[in-house]
Amino acid sequence: MIRRRPVLSLLSALAMVFLLGPILLVVAIGFSSGDTVEFPPPGFSLRWFDQALSNASFQQGLLTSLLVAAAATLFALVLGIPVALAVQRRTFRGHKAVETLFLSPAIVPELVLGFALFQQLMVTMRITALGALLIGHTVLLLPYAVRVTGASLALSDPALEEAARGLGAGPLRAFFAITLPVMTPGIVSAAVLSFLTSFNNVPLSLLLKGPGISTLPVEMLNYVQFSYDPTVAAVSTLLLAATVGAALLTERLVGFNKVFSR
Amino acid sequence: MTPVVQLDAVSREFAGTAAVRELDLTVRRGEFTALLGPSGCGKTTTLRMIAGFLEPTAGRILLEGEDATRLPPERRNIGMVFQSYALFPHMTVEKNVAFGLKMRGIPDGELRTRTGEALELVGLSHLAGRKPKQLSGGQQQRIALARAIAVRPSVLLLDEPLSNLDARLRIQMRQELARIQKETGLTAILVTHDQEEALELADSMVILDQGTVAQQGAPREVFRAPANRFVAEFLGYENFVELPDGRTVTIRPEHVEVLTSESTDSTPSDGTTVDAVLTAVRFRGTDCVVTAVSQGRTVLATSSDFELRSGRQVRVHLPAAHTIDLPRTKQELPTS
């Protein structure tokens, strides 16, 4: 294999080094016994994990992040699935325009979106930081919800629901017995992608945070601005472990390939 | 007896364009009707209106004598087989076939019996536990049929059911379909663009052209006496000839006789005989198709005389028994 395609093999190896190298470096530093970020680490210890887990602002940030990611994912799906259905079936004039509207948050720079929402929600309407974060992240996730569930619908046979209707199922029953189960892999994919997108987001959260309400990535960013110890590396390692765990779980539930190929 | 399906001047427009125009159709109990025509003739639109997936823009649809024009599909007691089969991918074969019975609230025991019977009818009882993806195209087709039949519909609607199968399987399934319809005595409406399929299966065929009936009748009748050029062309008549007496006739290539000086010297006493020259000979195994040109008119004929070559002088005989008069139309030259 290597002998037959030397250039391809070399490029693959380089890609692996550039992709995985920095990540492995961070993991290594997370287990360091030193006082600053240095490589190679002087020794092995778990003290930075201890430090990370007992940090109050990280604890609060994690809680907020999980809450916002979960709630925004739910809202985006509840709003996005009907849009995907309506757009996919072309039941009305201007379905293309509606689709574009719902995909537009992915095109607008997040800082611009964040600033606009900050101005409208927090300054003008005086909505709390948590409320603003929920609304902002929901807007951010809508394109993923509409696109990914829409893609799974586009792949399914439009005659399925008609077949159910023809066999005696009313519109609601046909939806819950046939359409929804057929969409499930798409919905799970959209949920996983949405959750990760929200959980990793910085620009929106940076603008929409408030006193005592901030997300984990924002807290991590704050932390590295003032301290240069391996605490953030330890947090990153924990996040990495959680993400890999989630990916494996998704793989077991619906098949990882399905999540990203849909 | 009340017809099972009756269409009363049914029309359907799409954005101002008429797909079906004032169509009348009557389907009697136990009858196998084929809606036949090229794509865009309105046959699928008609079937979808009977099923309730589309509402007519004008006219009435009666099912079992009752007005069903505005009835949703789930209240029509139809059994539909889709071109794509539309088997539910997340359910087993058995669950697919049982779906309609479940929707009708049939109790468990009877549901199982009837599901089993339907699967047996299509000969696939052994696949009850499989998922649709694990089946071949032909098997999926049969399951779709079993699912439609299990509910004992008042009419079985078949939307190009065989068009996704390969040629051999299609012919096999055609016989299978005929057998199942006979055994169940179901009333059926088949939409197809394949004239052979309609000729073989249907008791009655309706040829549609631009949303209206071009001709309707028993297959033998229609095939022997196409009413106009559209129907004749659709049924594979390839010669359209203006005779010296001014009539326009059509004749199938296999009925045209090619006479050579070796085969006969006498001129047939019936029909029309003209001198012609062969311009092309295509070998097809059991016969050849020859193109004969006479005074600028082209006639296609089949012949089992394998000595025929291009450039040969022949006489072409159109036997009276096989020439069919057509009403005069503007365009009278053959298309070939």
Kindly list the characteristics that best describe this protein:
heterodimer, A: 262 residues, mainly alpha, MetI-like fold, 12 helices, 77% helix, B: 336 residues, alpha+beta, Rossmann fold, OB fold (Dihydrolipoamide Acetyltransferase, E2P), 2 domains, six-stranded mixed beta sheet, 8 helices, 18 strands, disordered C terminus
Walk me through the topology.
The complex is a heterodimer of chains A (262) and B (336).
Chain A: H1 6-30, H2 47-54, H3 56-89, H4 95-103, H5 110-124, H6 129-155, H7 159-166, H8 171-200, H9 203-208, H10 216-226, H11 231-254, H12 256-261
Helix pairs in contact in A: 1-11, 2-11, 3-4, 3-6, 3-8, 3-10, 5-6, 6-8, 7-8
Chain B: E1 5-14, E2 17-27, E3 32-36, H1 43-51, E4 58-63, E5 66-67, E6 78-81, H2 93-103, H3 108-121, H4 137-150, E7 155-159, H5 167-184, E8 188-192, H6 195-201, E9 204-209, E10 212-217, H7 219-224, H8 229-234, E11 239-242, E12 248-251, E13 257-259, E14 272-283, E15 288-294, E16 297-303, E17 313-318, E18 324-326
Parallel strand pairs in B: 3-8, 3-9, 6-7, 7-8
Antiparallel strand pairs in B: 1-2, 1-4, 4-5, 9-10, 11-12, 12-18, 13-17, 14-15, 14-17, 15-16
Helix pairs in contact in B: 2-3, 2-4, 3-4
